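Quick one:
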Amino acid sequence: MPSRSTMSYSATSSRTFTGISSPDSPMTRPPARRCGRSSTTRSASHPTSFARESPTSKSISPSVEGQKTVNMAMSRRRRNHLRMFFLGTVLCLVVSGCAIAEWVGVQLYYKNADLPEKQVLRDIPYWNSVDSHPARHRLDLFLPQGTQWPVLVFVHGGGWMEGDKSLRVAGADIYGNIGRFYASRGVGVAVINYGLIPDVPWRHQPEDVARAAAWVHTHIAAYGGDASRVFLAGHSAGAQLVTRVALDPELLKAMGLSTGIVCGVISVSGAALDLTDEKTYELGEKLSYYEKRFRDVNGGDQWKQAASPVY
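Output:
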C-alpha cells in the first residue's frame, strides 16, 4: 500500500456533540452575543487615537473611546472563556457518567431537529453475509425531500470499543438528531454501526465503514440521492475511521469504489491520525491506550503505521 502521507484529500474541520459545524446546529452551544459597535476612523492628528463617526458628527475623547473598545473586547473574551470552561466541565462529567451533568448538558446544548418519521428508515443492512452481525452492520437513513441531494455517511465514536448509532444521553437521541438536522436542510444522512473491538479485529472496522459507503453509493439513488456526492463524517474514533477509509485506495477498490467517489471528509475530534508521531498521540491519550486497540499479535511496531491514516 502506498504511503498515505503522499495522498491528498478534502477535509473540513467541524464539531459535533461536542458539535456539528453550523451556527444553529443541534449540538452546538448558542453563539456568543455580539456587542454592537459603531465604525471608527483613525484620527489624522494621532496615529493611535480614534474618533467615533456618528450621525451628529459629535467628537468623543480618543482616550475614552479607546478604553471603551478595550473593555468591550475583554468582556467578550471573559464570556467566551466562561462558556468554554462550563461546556468543558459538563462534557467531562458526561463522559464520567454523571447523570446530572448529562441532563444539564442536554438542556443547555441540545436542540431537537424536526423531520417527519416517514423520512427515517432504520436498521437497513448494508452487508448481508454469514459473517455480518445482525445489529452492527446496519444503518439508519434520514431522507430529505426532493431529489438529487448529497449524502453524508456518519460514523459514531466510542474509542473503537463501544458506541452505537442509537446513542441516547439523558433521553436525547444524539446521532439521530444529526441525521434529522441535515436531512431537514436538504442533505441525506446514513448513520451507521460497525463492528467493535474486541469482538472484531481493528482492521475490520475501516472495512465496515467502506462497505457502508459502498452500499450508500450503490443504493442512494433509489431513495432520491445523488450517488456522485457522497461525503464521509465521523466523531472521535469514527473520525479516524472515515479519514483512514478516504486515504486507502486499496480498501476502496476492494469494496468496488474509486478514490474519487468520496467527495469530502469531515473529521470531528479525530484521534490516532499518526501513531508514529509522539507529539500527535500524546495530545490525546497515552500510546498504551492505542496499543491496546491496534497492536497485532507478534506484529512489532508496524501496527502504528498500519492503523494511522497519515504518517
